[in-house]
Specification:
mainly alpha
Length: 218
């Protein structure tokens, strides 16, 4: 991370907290940055965080609680351990504790924690703020083809410990679940601009994975 990127992230971070009405110590920002730079991460990195924050600018105006949405995006992948299944819950707990420690109201901390839990993507988001957070987290599915292809490579690298066949079967199941949804994006803006591209990306990825599965050389 170069100085310019760090300064951009720090400015966004501090502005959110000023709007929230509190300011944590500088160690929290550094701790989060260090998390997103962990070596086992290939997709859930500062690149992903930066894309989330950039997309937040498009949807902040439709959010009911934009500050809470912003803080949820900062913390939603704070904990990312491939060996556990409660990363979102742990990230939510961390955010909740830090907000209370900074003196923010419990109701605000509760909302942020709930928004982070929505990024489990196992249920339909409820409420505009959850829709905004989930749409932003899933933006990558509707990214331009070149960025989506890069994302696919990054996900494979993150799961490099899995054999190809095991990865392909699991990935196919995940992509199929997304394609079976009536809508991938809940907000009107993201549905209009990204839904079609997302379905094209997912279909092409599934076709490539299916072909690889049927290739006797694999």
């Amino acid at each position: 991370m170069d100085a310019e990127q760090r300064n951009t992230l720090l400015e966004h971070w501090q502005q959110l907290w000023r709007e929230a009405g509190a300011m944590p110590g500088p160690a929290l920002f550094d701790a989060l940055i260090d998390r997103y730079r962990e070596p086992h991460r290939k997709y859930h990195t500062l690149q992903h965080l930066g894309e989330c924050l950039a997309n937040f600018q498009q949807l902040a105006a439709v959010a009911a609680h934009p500050v809470e949405v912003g803080l949820a995006l900062w913390f939603h992948d704070a904990i990312y351990d491939l060996g556990r299944h409660d990363n979102e819950a742990c990230s939510a707990d961390w955010a909740h504790a830090e907000m209370l420690a900074a003196g923010l109201p419990a109701a605000m901390a509760d909302r942020v924690a709930d928004l982070i839990l929505a990024t489990c993507h196992n249920t339909t988001p409820v409420g505009i703020d959850a829709e905004v957070v989930v749409d932003i987290d899933l933006w990558i599915l509707g990214a331009p083809a070149g960025r989506f292809d890069e994302y696919e490579r990054q996900v494979r690298e993150e799961y490099g410990h899995l054999a190809d066949e095991v990865f392909r079967v699991g990935r196919l199941g995940i992509l199929q679940q997304f394609l079976e949804r009536p809508k991938l994006f809940s907000t009107a803006v993201f549905f209009e601009h990204h839904e079609g591209q997302a379905r094209d990306n997912l279909s092409q990825s599934m076709a490539a994975l299916t072909l690889a599965n049927s290739d006797p050389r694999h």
